[in-house]
Design goal:
The complex is a heterodimer of chains A (305) and B (480). Chain A is an all-alpha fold. Chain A is 74% helix and 0% strand. The N terminus of chain A is likely disordered. Helix content of chain B is 67%, strand content 2%. Chain B has a two-stranded antiparallel ribbon with strand order 1-2. In chain B, a hairpin with a 4-residue loop joins strand 1 and strand 2. The chains are: A mainly alpha (305), B mainly alpha (480). Chains A and B meet through helix 1, helix 3, helix 5, helix 6 and helix 7 of A and helix 5, helix 7, helix 9, helix 10 and helix 11 of B.
């Protein structure tokens, strides 16, 4: 995109060439300063990540925390990872999270897109009131009603189960319609008018015409709803019983690994780092590969209205 | 044949008309239609589905009838009792503990289980929602029957079941789309929220914990307590302190990330910056990793025995120093938040920077404007214009930013100013305070709910004011 802009302004280069020597010197100066700033910033931003990975691979003597700038031995190994898989339920947590994330991702995506489509492309009497109600609902802090959700799940006999987690994660999906609606709003109506003339049902228009045109927003919805459960430990903490570690998700498992009691932090910090590196690598690379869609999603919702 | 749908749309009169006046008129109309209506309509009015069955819409009629049977069973065996207690008794249960009551007929003591206020309230809310949903379905059923009357009067056949179904993937497709998401929303958001809002008017706290104790309605006492200055129990002083910190935090966190993020994006996307992709990736890695990991990690790095102190050779409690109203932890939190937030803004604004209309910038350059002037007078207003909604969401998001505070300091450190009331601590935001009030050993659900309502009011006000303002801005300088 940048290149296109540069190519479309061929005149600029000439003005640069004809500028004075002083101008050039100033440019070089500014360039150096900015590159140095970027490099320093980059290091500041990456150091904690480096620390995380380094700790994960460190061979621990006794305590988990690094308390020297240059540790006595720089030995590296996979000990923490082995410990993670043998002494904790990390593998099970991983499987649990994958299961919950996949299921809630499917449901959330369906609910969000269905709501957004109905509110964007269809006109009915309750449309405006419905949007207003959801706007108002969204202004209440999310976990204000957490306790009540827990009681409702308990009444349904669902606490301490993954189904409960899936339901809770996808339960509020309708309220997340806003970004997708912004995208659907931009698709020209002439498309569906043509389809209606051909005798297509609204269902066909939704499934065969609009959704295929909305790939970025579909990917965005899938991406965000899939990543959500990997980072949530508040709702899991309430729904999943602390005494059943085989039902934990990764976030809760890792959180409790270093927060279950006072000594836990020092004992398990290196294992936490090992687990965190695995999650970070997975979710991180997913995010980095998909960041184009992520940005498109957020900005397409933000630019509208 | 095309399915026929002849729902008479009420003419969209002036919307300003009072809601209740309109409701009254519509009720009057509805009653009139039923009274004047055919036998089938009257049957449907009395028992859902009968009218439909009379008109040979068997599947639809049986479904309606089944729903009504289910509803009656639900109310008789479960919801009805709770609903009556919840709505009409004025208390949330009267029998506190399991009691031994002498039974004359049996001739021995029987134990009568105590009532559970929480369940009465919860099931009361559930039953109320079920009742409302039932009334809506019932109204649909009567309306459908009235429509059938009209069709017959016009000499047309009533819809077959197949036609009705096809309606739901055509004209009424939105019903199909919205049904399940809205049911989920009702069960997992609306009902819990109603329950929690009602809790604000009760004395549900650690001294009144079901099942062993009852709690009861207390009117606006909790709201009064929020504004009370009474020593030790009055929330007002601490509420103001936490409110002030919440607002300052939201303001500083939002705008520091916003402006620094834009500057970073500018620096990376300058024409003469090399290795753009490398720089961008370096910063994006920091936000690609789930937040709870980076935040937990940061809290350990900044710990008293953490690596940062070791490197600096100091023992500074970055997240635990209470001097000067806990200034140091507050600053540290803001800096960590910048570490998390700046790359995020950079990522978001990069695209916007590239879409700035180039002709304006070219024109400004020809006029001899400096790079700084161009940035301030053209680029910044443009970015600001495009990102106003984003800024508002960020601001509201920061008011509710539970993760950053909870994972870094857990709301701590505790200090003398906050001590005692609702176990609040110095870096608590309203939301972490709310969380603490519902999870601590001394739970105070009533006050937690009041604080939730306060957060709602604040977020609502912020959104309302800024949206109105931003509309004015949009009209003034139109970039499109």
């Amino acid at each position: 995109m940048r290149d296109a802009v540069e190519k479309s302004n061929p005149g600029r280069e000439k003005t640069d060439k004809t500028s004075s020597f002083g101008q050039k010197a100033r440019n070089i100066c500014a360039d150096t300063v900015i590159h140095i700033l970027l490099a320093v910033g980059g290091i500041v931003w990456l150091l904690p990540i480096f620390y995380l990975i380094y700790t994960a691979f460190r061979v621990t003597p006794s305590t988990g925390i690094i308390n020297k700038l240059f540790p006595d031995n720089l030995e590296l190994g996979f000990g923490n990872f082995t410990k993670l898989f043998t002494e904790t339920d990390f593998g099970i947590w991983f499987w649990n999270t994958l299961k919950v994330a996949t299921c809630s991702c499917v449901l959330t995506t369906l609910f969000t897109l269905a709501t957004a489509y109905a509110l964007s492309r269809m006109r009915f009497k309750m449309r405006k009131p419905l949007m207003n109600v959801m706007l108002v609902l969204g202004m209440f802090p999310g976990f204000m009603s957490m306790i009540a959700v827990y009681f409702i799940l308990k009444a349904m006999g669902l606490t301490n189960s993954h189904l409960a987690l899936i339901l809770v994660y996808s339960g509020g999906a309708a309220m997340g319609y806003y970004i997708s609606k912004g995208f659907f709003d931009t698709i020209p109506h002439s498309l569906e008018e043509a389809a209606v003339l051909d005798g297509a049902s609204q269902w066909t228009i939704f499934w065969r015409i609009i959704l295929p045109l909305s790939k970025p927003i579909v990917v965005y919805t899938i991406l965000t709803s899939f990543i959500g459960p990997w980072g949530d430990f508040i709702f899991v903490n309430v729904i999943i019983n602390n005494t059943t570690p085989e039902k934990f998700t990764l976030a809760l498992g890792l959180y409790r690994l270093i927060n279950s009691d006072n000594g836990a932090f020092n004992l398990h910090f290196t294992e936490f780092c090992a687990g965190a590196s695995i999650v970070g690598l997975l979710i991180g690379s997913l995010f980095i590969f998909m960041q184009k869609y992520y940005v498109e999603g957020v900005t397409s919702g933000a630019v509208k209205d | 044949m095309e399915p026929i749908e002849t729902l008479v749309e009420v003419p969209q009169g002036p919307a300003q008309k009072n809601f209740f006046v309109r409701l009254g008129e519509r009720l009057k109309n509805a009653v009139g239609t039923v009274v004047r209506g055919s036998l089938a309509t009257k049957m449907s009015f009395c028992f859902m589905g009968l009218g439909q069955i009379m008109r040979k819409q068997f599947v639809k009629g049986i479904l309606y009838a089944l729903l009504e049977v289910l509803f009656i069973l639900f109310m008789v065996f479960f919801g009805g009792g709770y609903l009556v207690k919840f709505l009409f008794s004025g208390h949330l249960g009267t029998v506190e503990e399991t009691q031994q009551v002498w039974d004359e007929e049996l001739g021995y003591f029987v134990s009568v289980p105590g009532e559970n206020s929480m369940l009465i309230l919860l099931y009361g809310v559930v039953s109320l929602v079920v009742l409302v949903l039932f009334i809506i379905v019932w109204a649909m059923n009567v309306k459908g029957s009235v429509n059938n009357d009209r069709l017959i009067a016009a000499g047309k056949p009533v819809n077959t079941f197949r036609q009705d179904c096809s309606l739901y993937i055509n004209r009424k497709f939105y019903v199909t789309l919205l049904a399940i998401p809205l049911v989920m929303l009702t069960v997992f958001t609306v009902m819990p929220l109603l329950f929690m809002l009602l809790i604000a008017f009760t004395n549900y706290d650690y001294q009144h914990l079901p099942p062993s104790k009852l709690f009861d309605w207390v009117g606006f006492a909790n709201f009064a307590n929020l504004f009370s200055l009474a020593d030790g129990t009055g929330f007002f002083k601490v509420f103001l302190l936490i409110l002030a910190w919440t607002v300052i935090w939201a303001f500083v966190a939002t705008f520091s990330n916003y402006f620094l993020g834009i500057i970073l994006a500018k620096m990376i996307n300058r024409k003469r910056t090399r290795l753009k992709k490398l720089w961008r990736t370096m910063f994006v890695i920091a936000i690609a990793i789930p937040q709870f990991i980076t935040l937990l990690l940061m809290s350990k790095i900044l710990d008293g025995d953490g690596i940062l102190n070791k490197i600096l050779g100091t023992t500074i409690y970055w997240l635990g120093d209470t001097k000067y109203w806990s200034l140091l932890p507050r600053l540290t939190i803001i800096f960590v938040n910048m570490w998390i937030g700046i790359p995020y803004t950079m990522l978001m604004t990069t695209g916007i920077l590239m879409n700035i209309p180039q002709d304006m910038i070219e024109a400004a350059k020809l006029e001899g404007a400096s790079a700084w002037q161009i940035f301030r007078k053209i680029e910044m207003p443009y970015i600001f214009h495009v990102t106003t909604p984003y800024l508002i969401t960020q601001f509201v998001g920061n008011i509710n930013n539970f993760n950053v505070i909870w994972l870094l300091t857990g709301g701590g450190p505790g200090d003398n100013l906050h001590y005692g009331v609702g176990n609040s601590q110095s870096t608590d935001l309203l939301v972490t305070w709310l969380y603490r009030l519902t999870t601590d050993t001394n739970v105070q659900y009533g006050m937690a709910s009041v604080i939730g309502i306060a957060v709602f009011v604040i977020c609502g006000l912020v959104s309302l004011i800024t949206y109105n303002k931003s509309k004015a801005v949009k009209n003034e300088e139109d970039f499109q």
